[in-house]
Design goal:
The complex is a heterotrimer. Chain A is mainly alpha-helical. Helices cover about 55% and strands about 10% of the residues of chain A. Chain A has a three-stranded antiparallel beta sheet with strand order 1-3-2. In chain A, β2 and β3 form a beta hairpin. In chain A, α1 runs antiparallel to α4. Chain A is elongated, with a radius of gyration of 19 Å. Chain B is built from three helices and eight strands, in the order βααβββββββα. In chain B, strands 1, 2, 3, 4, 5, 6, 7 and 8 form an eight-stranded antiparallel beta sheet that branches. In chain B, a hairpin with a 3-residue loop joins β5 and β6. Chain C is α+β, with helices and mostly antiparallel strands. Chain C has one domain: START domain (Alpha-D-Glucose-1,6-Bisphosphate, Chain A, domain 4). Chain C has a seven-stranded antiparallel beta sheet, with helices on one face. Classes of the chains: A mainly alpha, B alpha+beta, C alpha+beta. Chains in contact: A-C, B-C. Chains B and C meet through β1, β5, β6, β7 and β8 of B and β1, β4, β5, β6 and β7 of C.
């Protein structure tokens, strides 16, 4: 259960800790979508999708608006203030680079015999 | 191999002074003014405070109780906004051992005709050096010294 | 007088790598090795690279998207314990503006199967991030990175 008193960043991190929500955010970063469009590639009930959407909206990353019978969702670009954006980018930058360090260590592992070229 | 460890800690101290930000800032901005308030206890033997007050500039001072270990303070200035902000990083050594590395941010904010000073320290305590709040306590003592020094001008 | 504001933040990230502490340390200590993984974005060019890995030594480099904002990184190494720990202070400039100063602590612990790396960043964010051109772009990139960072994160 989300703690609604968390700092904005904590909510954003918690929201993105789930792979389904990450997929939804990635889809929305390409442009707005209706709830059913968001749900289409996901292997779950519509009510499960709606629950995930509620978490994303509570975190401030996404907002939605219902017009008639269609609820349209979009990324909320301004939600993170500059300090929080800086912190999130520092953190994301470290995560990315530590991933690359991992790949580098595997590539340069002296114990792994190089594959013969085909 | 010696087992190594670190402890990360942050503390913030807030003080108000009746002097305006320019005067409080001036107490930081040259060696003579800073040496009036920035240093160890009265009974310590102390070196002269050296200060090159500019971004990239260094500061150093050392001291200790007679017969006791010498504390070495060495700082590098990272960011200076006149009358508003100072950011530095500093290390403390006890004799030859580095005991901590810290990032210190001092903000000078106008409060009426006086100043609200905010100091935030983000510290790394090294290898079991057990701070138990002494760093914060010592820093509060320095601000007491600063207040007295400002009053005496 | 602009409205100055300093915001402080600390965070920790842990990873376990199937490599000895000596190999992981070398990836930080050796200029060529570090260049293979350590700078912001793999596709951004890196220039003016100074790397003097010793206590009191400094690192400097300039990077950024081609034709875009210059990201300038300046560090001084403060504490180095071979194969075990690195503590350094660094600041970041976007174009001419210093946007942050941080302390980074990297600790390496031998564990079964390799090395546990613990990275702690303690930073102060200074003003000016908002004024940088391409901020909207930066927000989108930030969100993408956030999402990707969590998608790609190896289990500790």
């Amino acid at each position: 259960m989300l703690n609604y008193q968390s700092a904005p960043l904590d909510l954003a991190f918690q929201a993105l800790a789930d792979p389904t929500r990450r997929l939804m955010v990635e889809r929305l970063s390409q442009g707005p979508a209706s709830v059913s469009e968001l749900a289409q590639p996901l292997d779950m009930t519509l009510s499960a999708v709606v629950q995930h959407l509620a978490v994303l909206e509570a975190s401030g990353l996404v907002r939605s608006q219902k017009v008639g019978r269609v609820r349209t969702c979009r990324i909320e670009p301004q939600v993170l203030h500059s300090a929080e954006r800086w912190i999130s980018e520092r953190r994301a930058s470290w995560e990315r680079r530590l991933d690359r360090l991992g790949a580098f260590l595997v590539e340069t592992d002296p114990a792994i015999k190089p594959r013969s070229k085909k | 191999m010696t087992e190594r460890s670190t402890k990360h800690a942050t503390f913030t101290i807030e003080r108000t002074f009746s002097a305006p930000p320019s005067r409080v800032f001036a107490a930081y901005a040259d060696a003579k003014s800073k040496a009036r308030w920035f240093g160890g206890p009265e009974d310590w033997e102390k070196s002269n405070l050296k200060l090159d007050f500019k971004v990239g500039g260094r500061e150093s001072v050392s001291g200790g109780p007679p017969e006791g270990p010498i504390h070495y303070y060495n700082a590098i200035y990272q960011d200076i906004v006149p009358d508003e902000r100072i950011v530095l990083t500093y290390e403390l050594h006890l004799d030859k051992t580095r005991i901590s590395v810290s990032l210190g941010t001092t903000e000078f904010k106008p409060l009426g005709s006086g100043t609200r000073l905010l100091y935030t320290e983000q510290a790394v305590f090294l290898d079991g050096y057990d701070d138990a709040g002494l760093r914060e306590q010592g820093t509060r003592g320095l601000f007491d010294n600063l207040a007295r020094s400002l009053e005496m001008q | 007088m602009t409205d100055r504001n300093a915001k402080h933040a600390t965070f920790t990230i842990e990873r376990v790598y199937p490599a000895t502490p000596a190999r992981v340390f070398k990836a930080w200590a050796d200029k060529e090795a570090k260049t293979a993984w350590a700078y912001c974005h793999a596709e951004w060019p890196v220039s003016d690279h100074v790397f003097d890995f010793r206590e009191g030594g400094r690192e400097h480099l300039v990077t950024g998207p081609r034709g875009g904002t210059r990201h300038v990184f300046d560090a001084v190494f403060l504490d180095i314990v071979p194969d075990q720990r690195i503590v350094y202070a660094y600041d970041m400039h976007l174009d001419r503006r210093r946007i942050s100063v941080s302390l980074a602590t990297i600790e390496l612990f031998a564990v079964a199967g390799g090395t546990r790396l613990v990275l702690t960043e303690q930073g102060v964010f200074l003003d000016g991030y908002d004024d940088i051109e391409g901020r909207e772009e930066g927000t989108k990139i930030g969100l993408d990175n956030l999402g990707r960072a969590f998608a790609d994160q190896r289990a500790a």
